[in-house]
Amino acid sequence: MNNRTVALVPAAGRGLRMGGAVPKQFLALGGEPLVVHSLRVLQRSPVIDQIILAVPQADLDYCLNDLAVRFGFSKITRVVAGGKERQDSVRHALEHVPEETEIVVVHDAVRPFLTEQMVAEVVEAARREGGAIIALPMRDTVKQVGPEHRIEQTVDRKPLWLAQTPQAFRCDRLLHVHRKAHAEGVHATDDAFLFERAGYPVVVVEGSGENIKVTRPEDIVIGEAILASRRSDNMKGSV
Fold first, then answer.
1. Contact 224, 29 (CB under 8 A)
2. N or C: which end of the chain has fewer CB atoms below 10 A?
3. All domains of the chain, ordered by start, with CATH?
């Protein structure tokens, strides 16, 4: 198997905002675990050679010997124990990436509506520029708010983008910035921040409003609607 492009899927979160005992990445969406939808796209993508999944310690066996087998995810070559934070999970997975890997794609398990086109475009941009992310231009009016909820100013939204995943980077650089951040106690909400902090360029590839992150119960309802719409479009296309 080729190892040039490896996808890392951090799926070790506890999903506290969702409530309940089941981690959000394993909640049902369209009758399947949420993480399955992301993994299916990465499995199908011709630009992804391997997948490394980072999950809670208690779910290692289930993901490797049940989920991966049941859904035919042959590109999953490793399932590793994630860390306390998302950044820790990505770093743990990075340590298992084959040495010959050129590009690493990081995608949140709880963004089930990525597309093969997003994956292909962000990988191509990373090969060209070193780092790239899927993002959306800010469309709403943005207010800077101070104490007592008083508006201080209206912020120019033109240069503002909302970061999503997948994000793709040169493997050697990503490993370097993660190790550096860990050593210095720096915490980031996405991998692009660590790249930016090290002075490496990161470019933006415009994504889709459907590429939502499932973090609250109402997001499952929205996700079911997106899934139903996509299935309807596929049925129309096959007629």
1. yes
2. C
3. 5-238 (3.90.550.10)
3-state secondary structure of 171: helix
Overall size of the chain counted in residues: 239
pLDDT > 90: what percent of the chain?
82
Residue ranges of alpha helices (H) inside 8-66 are 34-44, 60-62
Rounded Cα–Cα distance for residues 146 and 51 (Å): 43
Backbone angles phi, psi at 80, to 5 degrees: -115, 160
Whole-model pTM: value is: 0.91
The answer to whether the CB of 238 falls within 8 A of the CB of 39 is: no
Q: What is the spatial distance between Cα 56 and Cα 84, in angstroms, rounded to a whole number?
A: 9
Residue 106: which pLDDT band, with cuts at 50, 70 and 90?
very high
- Flag whether pLDDT at 21 surpasses 70: no
Alpha-carbon distance of 162 to 108, in angstroms, equals 15
